[in-house]
Amino acid sequence: MDKWLNNSNFSKVIALVLAIILWAIVHLDDTAAPPQVASLIDVKVIDDVKIQTVGLDSSRFILHKITPEVVRIQVKGKTSALTSAMPEDYRVKLDVTGLDEGTHTLSLTTEMPKGIQLISMSPSSVQVELEERQTKEMDVSITTTGSPAKGYTAGQPIISPTNRVHVTLPASQMKDVQSVSATINIDGVVNSVKQKRLKLTAYDKTGHEMKDAIITPPVVEVEIPIAKPFKSVPLQINFVGKLPDGLAISSIKQSANQVAIYGPQNVLDGIDFYDSIQIDLSKLTETTTLSLPLPVLGKVEKIEPSSVNFEITIVPAVQRQLDKVPITLNGLNEQLKATIQEPASKVMSVTLEGAPDLVNSLKPEDVQLIANLSDLPPGVHQVALKVNSPNFVRQVNTEQLYVKVLIEDKISKPTDSKGQPEAPKPPTDTLPVDTGETPPPTTDPNPPETDHAANSGTDIKE
């Protein structure tokens, strides 16, 4: 054995054998490696990958259409990489930087997740259509729904910071925009709506929302005043006393003819006018300016205005006889008719007093002589006349005026010379039987004339 080992040829043979074995081991590893690597690489197909647009100048253009909108890609990579990648990690991009309005065909670019390679993409290019944006200024309208609590009133909406906004749309849609508005519900509210933020929406001519519209600003603040129940009623002045002799009121100017009364609705429903102030004429001797407060009475909460100013012009009075003033008959029963017997002309003269400009401009039809025939039976009656004259004009003499009136049934009946119904006549076809007894006296069918002074008197006005 030692001789073999010491033999050089034997050593060379051993070295050769070892070299062959090592060579074989190395080459066997190289040929076995490819199948092992192949088992770690996989291929995957991903459908409907959405195209992402970059470089769009959104202030000038809108991306009107991309054809197609998704693509199909085939990728490869390690199984672990393909498994861990999410769909949104596969990015397909469309760069429209610098493009103008119109239709363009562009190639797509991709960004793959780490460790994954793109094999193919279908399609690799798309057709894109850009449309110019247009902007115009429009008014904002606020629509309310519902109603405030009973008696409360909603005022006009107040919009902040402005009631005008800018609306941006594709040029092809701008002609269709009709309004920009928002809606707020005020049903049952009793207090003003303040600082309510509302999102604005653009609508077309058919009332449909225009979703492509860009509104600047998109949100506004709205305030809606809610007023307490109130009622506007005429202001009536009560005049008391009488001006000193020889004076008359030429005119009265007042700062308000109506007042607004605030309070519960059931209280307001029973108020038709406001007459809680009065002016004492006996204290006026010359043109005067007055400021009178309006008292708040009962369950009324507030009155606006709180006071009223009056400018009363006083001048020397003049007198004038107004002729041919017509007489008016009022209050007659529907089943009766009336005729004026005296005066036959059916007109009278009246002497009036007042300021020169008022008295001298009077016409007969400006004054009324009224005979009240209510509750009067058929017959002839002396009826007192009531004199109605314009404000601040009065009758001078207080002597009562009368009119003689004949009242009859609308179905005619025979009357005597005095206008009274005739007594019924006995039948002509039979003769009375003489019984020897004294007949009872007949009743006078003609009653005497009556003097009807109901509601009589002259209405004297300062």
TrEMBL record:
Residues 453-462 have a biased composition (Polar residues). It comes from the Bacteria. Residues 134-157, 412-462 are annotated as: Disordered. InterPro entries: c-di-AMP_regulator, YbbR. Residues 438-448 have a biased composition (Pro residues). Pfam families: YbbR. This is YbbR-like domain-containing protein YbbR. It comes from Paenibacillus selenitireducens.
